[in-house]
Design goal:
This protein is mainly α. It has 7 helices and 4 strands, in the order H-E-E-E-H-E-H-H-H-H-H. The mean pLDDT is 88.
Length: 214
Amino acid sequence: GKISFEAISYLVNITKFIIISLAALFIYTKTQKFFAERASTSAKISLWQASSFKLPFGKKKYSLPLWIIVPIITSIISQGQLFFAALLSTTISIQPKYRIGRKFSQATEFERAKILVMAPIILTLIAIVTNTPLKDIALVCLMIALYSMLPLPGLAGAEIFFGSTPLYIFSIVFIITSALSLKLFSTFVSLIFALIIALTALTTHLWRFFKKKI
């Protein structure tokens, strides 16, 4: 926010965003773990990486740390105008002894999708509530929610998309609309507007789906 570079302002600003980002990621992980436990499963959260691979004539396996490579490349290509905020990958595991009495012994794709989508939704709701007094918090929460919904291998968005396309459409439209409407409307109006647009998109998708079936 300064015309020229000031070291003190820079350090204060970057420290603030580091703290906000860590807090948002903490909420993200705790939300997924909470809803995983509610579904009698467990969520293992790790930094986003590419699948393990071996170099030619080598025995040791390597994995690319996409959580740091992709953000740096994005920042360099955009000359600092864009940043990539998807850092975490979540694996849903089964706890068989807690699945007794449930219809399926294994978690269905839809169950996994519901667990994974809750963290982006919660962050979006936090962004809506904090937008007016605390815009920096709202920005970080929205960016993490939005980028985590990208349907890329290893990110939550991919499993949500393939686990339940209707749920993915509703969620991604809700998040994007919330991000755009916060600049135009108040907190309550933004929430209602985002819900209406998301429900409209979901209804349109379902109508087209069942129309093809008929």
